[in-house]
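Pipeline run #58 for the internal structure catalog. This entry was flagged by the ingest filter as a single-chain record with no existing model, so it goes straight to prediction. Upstream metadata was stripped on purpose; only the residue string is passed forward. Reviewer on rotation: M.T. Logging verbosity set to normal.
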Amino acid sequence: MLGAQTPLAAPAESLPRMRILVVDDDAVNRQAMVLLLEREGHQVVAVENGLEAMERLGHRDNTFDAIVTDLQMPRLGGRAMYEQLVKQPAAVARRFVFVTGDQARGETRSFLENCGTAIGDEAL
């Protein structure tokens, strides 16, 4: 029967809506992440470097469920941000998701392994 389509799979369960801070110095990457996350229904705040992110994280009314950040950026990268926040009692450091194009440096892999971040071989 033409035009009739059977769904291939059941729709995915809806994920909880989150408030997410996106930190990336590359405007194209930052905008792509914002569009993707907003399409999934999340509330997104985007900034272009770690200093701006730390300012946002310092406000009591700015709580975020997740921080998606590039590891390497001028003016305070994701790793330096994480290292500053991991010592604070608010458990913000456990909410980090790191994004990187760094495939060559072993120290990047070591950092991600030591901070408890899952690493996919396709990412590094």
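catalog note: The longest strand covers residues 19-23.
catalog note: The CA atoms of residues 4 and 102 lie 46 Å apart.
status: ready for reviewer M.T.
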